Amino acid sequence: MFENLQSKLESALKRLRGQSKITEENIQEALVEVRNALLDADVNFSIAKEFIETVQVKALGLEVKGNILPGQMIVKLIHDELVALMGTGKSEINFNSSPPTVIMVAGLQGSGKTTFCAKLALYLKKKGRQPLLVAGDIYRPAAVDQLKMLGQQINIPVYFSEGKNPVEISKESLGYARNYARDIVIIDTAGRLTIDEQMMQEIEHIKTETKPREILFVCDAMTGQDAVNTAKAFHDRLSLTGVVLTKLDGDTRGGAALSIKKVVGQPIKFIGVGEKVEALEQFHPDRIASRILGMGDIITLVEKAQQEIDDKEAERLEEKIRKNQFTLQDFLEQLRVIKKMGSLKDLLGMIPGMDRAMQNVQLDDKAFGKVEAIILSMTKEERNNPRILGGSRKRRIALGSGSSISDVNRLLTQFEDMQKMMKNMSQNQNNPMQKLRGMKMPNFKIPTGFRR
Amino acid sequence: MGLFDRFKQKVTSIVEQSGLNKLTEGLKKTRNAFVDRLRFVLGSGRKIDAQLLSEIEEILITSDIGVHTTLHIMNNVKDIIKKEGYEDSSEIYNLIKQEILAILSSSSNIKHDDYYSLVHNSKPHIIMMVGVNGVGKTTTIGKLAYNFKQKQKKVLIGAADTFRAAANEQLEVWAQRADVEIIQQKQGADPAAVAFDTVKAGLTRNVDVIIIDTAGRLHNKTGLMQELEKISRVIQKLIPDAPHEVLLALDATTGQNGLLQAKEFAKVSTVTGIVLTKLDGTAKGGIIIPISHELNLPVRFIGIGEKINDLQFFDAEEYTDALFTNEEHDITDN
Fold first, then answer.
1. Residue B168 predicted with pLDDT over 70
2. B133: contact with A, CB 8 A cutoff
């Protein structure tokens, strides 16, 4: 997420490092680079321009103090500006004091509204709410089926009424919600173009009839310069209460996040980070601004880890790492935990400096399946002491896991590298992140045979 | 679909097909926004200066043409201005148009007449549709199938999007609308197996063209991209030179990420052309210009609506004209 903007900003600011004073000249070049990086990231042209002007004015007023480099000060300045631009703090869904709370979801075709509705329903259900999904897209073929299937998958009811129009369906769903004690009503609407007057009127009617507490605009994070126009047009018609950015698990630089907030003036409430129904996260402007500037997103990583690893287990592991007793069995367990946490590439992307370190490394989560299979084909003894693995044992393991002997060998080499790396880490506990930054990555290339 | 619906659709399609102004209509919004601004910038008989050039640069960038390609266009235009000694702002308009046209037509155009008649193609002609999520692959397939069917071709569709909920049902509706056959398996089935079955059935049924739908996938997901490779590999067991056409569907609202999409998809499948979808909205689809510029990938089709006949051949000249020339005299008149 945002990797490219991050690296471009860094290269632009490199020129500022090591200079004693911020002058109009030495910042100019960097600012042009920053502007181009923002534009390449699909930040709206005017917003990028304004952003650059603000940064410049503030930068020139800065005094160079002590041993802080001007570059560092500008990084901080840009960071603060980015955060200010994307809104401060996180934003939750607002609820009505008397249920049901209606949430209407709107956006262009293919932005991911239906998937988001299901994700939001699951998210709220996990928070103890009783959501009802409403299938208000009667136009796209099988859109109703899609929502019904997703509803079934997450065990949340879907309201639909054959032969009725979206306004009627939405209106009726409120009665259904009251009768069946559903406290949240999430209305999925058809994708529509802002210049389609008839469709825009329809969604206005849905709003009038259902009085939504939240009207969320779903926007593809890959959207270009038009994002602000579309967002503004929806906002003018519906008075949006929030924005949802989808498909942020791609490699889009996501400049839309920077611009939409500014134009619509409403918070970005959620981001979609995958095709699975669980892949919904809250939007944290500070975290993403940090990522843009290469400071990493450690908070998210820690939070994710906390969800999956219990403290005692973590302590046990730490002990093992310190004593250099980390075995293949532990490795297997860790793999499984990591798999639960999400895609490996995403996780590594949250560690500062790791983005660049891993840039040319092929990371494939599916490859872990293969690694898992190899370890599972080992006996307990072999897992605890891989040194006993001779030719015939390796052959048996390869056969048992459907891989080749060279795959097994490669895994063992990687495991050894990893043990060394862990030893290094545990010896440098004072400042592990510093160490991580300067650390040379072991050759963690996944062998071609491991790819699907 | 009821008989009445079908009848109504036929009538509207005949009416609509007769007017080739659909593209112009679809692009009207785009063009107006663009031309209005160009007129504003160029119209007042200004002298060419740095301010003017930077205003033009802004217009190109806000059309999603991207910094890199915009600078390329502007540098060429500046060179010509210098060399030819242009002074009046009205000249710039044509220069920019020529630059963009040069980029777009370097991505070679197909011969439209032959596309649906398939005279130069082996039988069955196999088309695979790829792209990220939500760009309009399935819709485009419905339209493509319909167009082949209109040319009396026997079409078979393969539903290899076995991942997304109700993708099967959605494609089935389009197959019905186009009145063509479809091969499906249940959700979660191996997409390569579906593609294989489709091609096999296509050979048995002696169809002219096979169109394979694939699940939307983000181009940075290695596993999913390898799945695409696998689909090609598996159908090559039946027809070694298949797929003959790989169409990358690209949403016209897409920003600079579109270039990465095109690059990555071209790595795992031999993308032969682009379908620029949703061009009936306010987005300009300018990303196809850097794509043509850097990857030399031709744009085959444009999608300009949700109806079955809303797919048209891309024509570089027409596209550029529609974007720029329509009100040319208005601009220079002022």
1. yes
2. yes
Pairing relationship of beta strands B155-160 and B209-214 according to DSSP bridges: parallel
Domain at B112-322, CATH homologous superfamily? P-loop containing nucleotide triphosphate hydrolases (3.40.50.300)
Helices H / strands E in chain A, number of each = 21, 8
Domain A300-439 homologous superfamily, CATH: Signal recognition particle, SRP54 subunit, M-domain (1.10.260.30)
Mean pLDDT across the stretch A141-164? Answer: 96
Which of the 8 DSSP states describes residue A18?
A: T
Q: Would you call B257 and A252 a contact, using CB atoms and an 8 Å cutoff? A: yes
Identify the CATH homologous superfamily for domain A101-293: P-loop containing nucleotide triphosphate hydrolases (3.40.50.300)
What sign results for the dihedral spanned by CA atoms B127, B132, B135, B139? positive
- For residue B117, the distance in angstroms to the closest alpha carbon of chain A comes to 28
What is the number of other CB atoms lying within 10 angstroms of the CB of residue A66? 4
- In whole angstroms, what is the distance from residue B99 CA to residue B321 CA? 12
Shortest Cα distance from A410 to chain B (angstroms)? 20
Q: What does the block give as tokens for B273? A: 């052309």
The whole-number pLDDT of residue A10 equals 57
**CA–CA gap between residue A105 and residue A170 (Å, rounded):** 12
b/e per residue B130-169 (b: at least 16 CB within 10 A): bbbbbbbbbbbbbbbbbbbbeeebbbbbbbbbbbbbbbbb
Contact at CB, B61 and A194, closer than 8 angstroms = no
Partnered with residue B126 across adjacent β-strands are B210
Size of interface A-B (CB pairs under 8 A): 157
pLDDT digits (tens, 9 = 90+) for A302-352: 555 555 656 666 677 777 777 777 788 888 877 777 666 666 666 665 554
DSSP character for B110? P
In 3-state terms, what secondary structure has residue B286? coil
- Residue to mutate among B157, B222, B277, with most A CBs inside 10 A, is B222
Do residues A146 and A199 touch, judged by C-beta distance below 8 A?
no
Short-list B324, B317, B285, CA closest to B42: B324
Order the strands of the B209-214 sheet from edge to edge: B181-183, B155-160, B209-214, B125-130, B245-251, B273-277, B299-303, B311-313
pLDDT digits (tens, 9 = 90+) for A32-58: 877 887 888 888 999 989 988 988 888
User: In this predicted structure, which of A64-68, A420-424, B38-42 has the lowest mean pLDDT?
Assistant: A64-68
Look at B251 and A39 and tell me if their CB atoms are within 8 Å.
no
The residue extents of the domains of chain A are: 3-86, 101-293, 300-439
Q: Please tell me the predicted confidence (pLDDT) of residue B170.
A: 95
| Of A94-108, B172-186, B202-216, B273-287, minimum mean pLDDT range | B273-287
What ipTM did this prediction achieve?
0.84
Over the Cα atoms of chain A, what is R_g?
A: 26
- Please say whether the beta carbons of A16 and A5 come within 8 A: no
Enumerate residues 122 to 151 of chain A having a beta carbon within 8 A of any beta carbon in chain B. 139-143, 145-146, 148-150
Domain spanning A3-86, CATH class = mainly alpha
| Mean pLDDT, all residues of chain A | 79
